[in-house]
Amino acid sequence: MKHILSLVILITSMGACWQCGRPVIQPSIKAKKLNRIINGDFAVKSSWPWTVSIRYVNNSRQILHSCGGTLISHFYVITAAHCFITKRTRVVVIGSSNLNDRLKPKNIFRISKIHIHPQYNSNFLENDVAIIRLSRKVFFNRNRLPICLPKTTDISPIFNKSVVVVGWGSSNGSNNRKALSSRLTQAVLRVYNEQNNFDCKRFETNNYCAYDPTSRSANICFGDSGGPLMFYENNRWTLYGVTNFMLNDPVTLRCHNRMPSFYLMIPNYIKWIKQTINS
Fold first, then answer.
1. Are 141 and 118 found together in one domain?
2. DSSP state letter for 271
3. Residue 76 shares a structural domain with residue 213
4. Which CA distances in Å does 193 have to 9, 204, 259, 272?
5. Cβ–Cβ under 8 Å, residues 240 and 208
6. DSSP string, 145-184
7. Are strands 51-57 and 261-265 parallel, antiparallel or unpaired?
8. 80-131: per-residue pLDDT in tens?
9. Mind telling me which residue stretches traverse the membrane in this protein (predicted)?
C-alpha cells in the first residue's frame, strides 16, 4: 500500500509541473505584487518557458531572430501575422532564452503550417494574429511549457491592471539588429483601455493599450512583435495579448518608450484559435 501511495503522489506532482501558465522556475516579477524591451529587466532563465523566438534563415544560413511568439500546446504557437510579410524560411526556437546560445537540434522546430487570420489587414494591422503549427511535438519540461488561454471572450479583466510583456527587442529604441537584446527581457505595463487616454483612444477598440506609468518608461520595441502580453489570474499566467505595434518618434523613428504600445486582444479570437487548432 505504501508503494502504491508513493506512486500516486509522484504522478500527481509530475502532472502539476506541466500545467499551463505555471513555470517551474519562478519569474523575478512577483505575480501577486505587480507594481530591454526599452528599460526592461533581464528575465530569469526559463522563467517564461512559453516564450519562443521566431527566426529566419538568411543567405549565409544564419538563423536570426525576427519575432516573438507564445507556445499554447504541444504543436501550436501564437504570434503576429505581420511577422510573415516576407517569404523567408523560418523556424521556431523553443527552450532557449538567450539569442547567443548555441542552438541544439532539440530546440529548433520547423514550421508545418502558418494560419494567418482570414481578416488580417496589413495596412491597418487589424486582426494581426497568426497560429503556427509545428512540424513535430514539443515535449514539455521546465524550459518548454505552454501558457494558458483565457476561458472566456471577455476583454475587460485586464482593464486598468498590471500586465507583463517579454521579448528580445531593441534595447535602445533603434531599428537595428545590433540593438536586439541577446537575453530575454521583461517589463511591467499597465492597461489603459477606457481611461480616456488620448493616445489610446485612436486604437483601443481592437487593441489593448498599455504603457509604463513609472519613471522607468519601459516599453516594447523592434523585435518584440508577436510576443505575449500576460496577466496573472487564478494562480497562473494567461495570454491576453499579442504584441502588435508601438508608436515611434516622428523625427528619429526610434521607439517612443513614453507612449503607449498596442496588443491584439486574444479573448476576441478564442473561437478562431480553437477552430484552427481543432481542424
1. yes
2. H
3. no
4. 44, 6, 14, 23
5. yes
6. -PPBPPSSS--GGGTT-EEEEEE--BSSS-S-GGGB-SB-
7. unpaired
8. 999 998 888 899 999 999 999 999 999 999 999 999 999 999 998 899 999 9
9. none
CA dist 15 → 22, 145, 151, 222 (Å): 12, 12, 21, 37
Look at the chain and report how many structural domains it folds into: 2
Instruction: Supply the range of the domain harboring residue 256.
Output: 31-47+147-267
User: Is 12 within a domain?
Assistant: no
CB 124 within 8 A of CB 117: no
In a domain, 103, yes or no: yes
Alpha-carbon torsion angle 91, 142, 218, 250, nearest 10: 10
What 8-state DSSP symbol labels residue 277?
A: H
Q: Is residue 81 part of a domain?
A: yes
Give the SS3 label for residue 127: coil
Enter the pTM of the model: 0.89
Q: Are 148 and 238 in contact (CB under 8 A)?
A: yes
101 and 158, same structural domain? no
Q: How many CA atoms lie within 13 A of 121 on its CB side?
A: 5
Per-residue pLDDT reduced to its tens digit, 133-159? 999 999 999 999 999 999 999 999 999
Do 184 and 125 belong to one domain?
no
